[in-house]
Every structure is written in C-alpha cells, then in structure tokens.
Amino acid sequence: IASLFISSCAPTYVPNSVSAPFFNKKRQTLISGYCGGSGAEIQTAHSISDRFYMLANANYRGILIYNEQIYFGEIGWGYLKKFYENSIFDISGGIGGGNVNSKYVEFLCVFDCNKYYFEGNYLKLFFQPSIGYVLKDSELGFCIRNSFVTFPKYYYKINSSKSFQDSDKVIFSEPALFCRFGGERLKIFGQGG
User: How far apart are CA 147 and CA 95, in angstroms?
Assistant: First the structure.
C-alpha cells in the first residue's frame, strides 16, 4: 500500500470510455458526455442503417499535480447484429490520434527528486467486439477493445538528460463491463475495466 503513496507516474496513454451504442433501428443518434478517470469525454454515434453506424469521440484529460494534458479524438464504424430477443452483438473499429504533454516531480520526495518531462503524439487503431443485453430503459454490455497504439515521435527528459525516440508501438487489450439505465432520452452510464 505504501508504494501507492510514494511512487508516481505520468501516463502517456489513457484509454477513453468504450463506445457501444447498441442501436436497434436506422437514424438513431447517441450523444454522451462523461467525466471520470479518463478525463472529460464526448461520444457521438449515428446509425446509418439498422445494422451499421458511425462514431466520433473526443477526450481531454488534464491533471494539475502532474501538469499533464492529453488530447484525443477518434472516428470509426460499427456493425450490429441482434440475436435472441434482447441480445446484441456489436463489432466496431476505427482510428484515433492524440497529443500528450506531462511534467512532474516524484511524489513525497525530499532529497534528490527526479523531474520528468514527456511530450509526444500518438496514433491508435482499435477493434472492439461487444455483446449486450438491452431492455427498454437499460443496457448491460461487455467488450474487449483491442488497441494498437504507436508514438511516431516523442521526446522525454529525466532531470537534465534528454532523449528523443523515433517510434514506440504497444498493443493493449482493454476489457470493460458497462451499463446504461434511465429513460428513453437520458441515461446514466457506468463502466468498469
């Protein structure tokens, strides 16, 4: 437990909330706003048929103690298939990009504290299968978003030593359980994972 209080980090990639709109007919639109661990987000999706939809999402995260700012946006498409009475299979994919800028000093450090600085842009390709159960006023879903994240160029510095990196690539598997409940036009959203 002590390590939680005496260590620190400046995250360079923070996953945004999952986007699985679970539409059931053509010309439905979903506009969502969130505030949480991944920052402030807006997510939009629109069904262009009873099976296909487009999505566009934006995210901002700023943390004062790290002097951190992350900007991110993504676009994509999705396919829905209803099975059984209230169950939906959803598969989506897309591309996104972001910028991160973090500066911080080791937390609870007294002597010889390290100062860190990171700046870079990143590109994300994602593929996300989801399954959900939909009732009139509630939805419950599970998804595993698979993300390929690359930092084409980034710069970091620890204290006064400088380093430039040309490229770094990482694959993330991001499982999430989520729910929406409420009225027809306004729902509360929760996600864990």
Answer: 9
Q: Give buried/exposed letters for 33-44 (b at 16+ CB in 10 A, else e).
A: ebeeebbebebb
The answer to whether 86 and 133 are in contact (CB under 8 A) is yes
Query: How many Cα atoms within 13 Å fall on the side-chain side of residue 111?
Result: 0
Phi/psi class of residue 118: alpha, beta or left (left: φ > 0; alpha: ψ in -120 to 50)?
A: beta
Tell me the range of 5-14, 27-36, 105-114, 138-147 where mean pLDDT is highest. Answer: 138-147
CB-CB contact of 124 with 97 (8 Å): yes
How many residues are recorded in the chain? 193
- Give 13's contacts (C-beta < 8 A, 6+ positions apart): 98, 100, 122, 124, 149, 170, 172
Residue 115 pairs in a beta bridge with 105
Read off the pLDDT of each residue in 57-69 and give the average, rounded to a whole number: 79
DSSP summary character for residue 28: -
- pTM of the complete model: 0.79
Residue 86 DSSP code: T
Q: Which pLDDT band, with edges at 50, 70 and 90, does 2 fall under?
A: very low
